[in-house]
Amino acid sequence: MSTTEGTIQWSCVPFRELSVHTLYDAMQLRSRVFVVEQKCIWVEVDGYDKGCWHVVGTAPDGTIAAYARLVAPLLKGPHQKRPIISRVVVPPEARGTGRGRVLMLKAMDECHKLWPTHGIEIGAQQRLEEFYASLGFKAVSEPYDEDGILHVDMHHDYVKSTVTAL
């Protein structure tokens, strides 16, 4: 599925439908932010991408303007009952523009199209807990350390979001 909002072209596709260029650019952005900027030395490509759906916002010049990964229920094992929105990222130069909020709303909408009888879970960086709460997520865990960054598990149980982009 593909839509245009503002100057960003949005799509949500399974792994097999990602072009090699889009896949490369998404992985490069993820590594730039999650490994280099946040100084998390880990294997960022964790083996789940092939079974996921990928929400991609593409700028007019063809660069990745926003990206999120949708992990299908049960992909990580029988304990995972809900879809997970993960690897939520916008380029550092786009932070504070509202693009992350639009990305999350797109990702949430796609989750509910793909898995309409499920809520959503995220493993949010604790510093962003208030942002995710503004989208209707509720903390369901105490903060925990993941790769040197405090995180909190959050769930969203909605049927259809009434949250707006800005």
UniProtKB/TrEMBL annotation:
Gene3D superfamilies: 3.40.630.30. One of its GO terms (molecular function) is acyltransferase activity, transferring groups other than amino-acyl groups. Transmembrane segments: none annotated. Residues 13-159 form the N-acetyltransferase domain. Pfam families: Acetyltransf_10 (PF13673). This is N-acetyltransferase domain-containing protein. It comes from Aphanomyces astaci.
